[in-house]
Amino acid sequence: MRGLTTEEFDAFVDGLDYPMFVVTAYDGAERAGCLVGFATQVSIDPPRFLVCLSRANHTFGVAARADVLAVHALHAADHPLAAHFGGETGDDVDKFADVSWHTGPDGVPLLAELPRRLVGKVAERVPFGDHVGYVLVPIAEHGSARDGAGDPLMLGDVDDVTPGHPA
Ligand SMILES: Cc1cc2nc3c(=O)[nH]c(=O)nc-3n(C[C@H](O)[C@H](O)[C@H](O)COP(=O)(O)O)c2cc1C
Fold first, then answer.
1. Which pLDDT tens digit goes with each residue over 86-118?
2. Which pLDDT score is estimated for 166?
């Protein structure tokens, strides 16, 4: 039995749509954050959420040293923030210089414009391949679905954003 090639796999995943998030991290010295589509709830009770970070990203190195990550939900009006966190890299720019944020648990940056967010303690890091899965235990919730915020921002809404790093 052979595994699918990436091209064969693409035929299955291409066109599937899913919500987008901004994941942020702080390692005691540096802040980082990037746009993430590989993210999902993986348990109801106990509550668990999974986010997957590309090994290539600047955020990956910071998250590897962090105990806590923040996962910010994006809505229709948040395309500019998605482009900022997904199209720029912390290798070249300070993404937090021109956005409003404050410090959350363990110093993790919380983005003021994205109040629907989940802060999670890293319970497990799972090497999947070019991405590493971070299993999060939610430790604090802030906000909820925003009235008038519109539908979640989906992968199909950000196909004009070129990733700051190739995966
Ligand atoms: C539509 C889209 C989806 C993305 N999904 C992920 C993802 O699930 N995980 C990830 O680590 N990077 C993902 N990225 C890539 C990063 O957001 C992007 O390379 C970013 O510039 C990395 O920033 P950094 O180097 O500061 O961490 C995605 C980018 C785009 C445009």
1. 999 999 999 999 999 999 999 999 999 999 999
2. 83
- Mean pLDDT for the chain overall: 94
Written in H, E and C, the secondary structure of 112-146 is: CCCCCEEEEEEEEEEECCCEEEEEEEEEEEECCCC
Structure tokens at 20: 């987008």
Number of H helices and E strands in the chain, helices first, is 3, 9
The secondary element (H helix, E strand) that includes residue 29 is none
Which of 54, 74, 84, 134, when mutated, tests ligand 1's pocket best, judged by the most ligand atoms within 8 Å of its CB?
54
Ligand 1 atom, smallest distance to 165 CA: 19
Probe ligand 1: pick from 17, 21, 35, max atoms within 8 Å of CB?
Answer: 35
> Model confidence over 65-79: pLDDT tens digits?
999 999 999 999 999
User: Which ligand 1 atom is nearest residue 87's CA?
Assistant: 21
Whole-model pTM above 0.90?
yes
Q: Please classify residue 114 by burial: count the beta carbons closer than 10 Å to its beta carbon, then call 0-12 exposed, 13-18 middle and 19+ buried.
A: buried
Using the atom order of ligand 1, give the atom closest to the CA of residue 62: 27
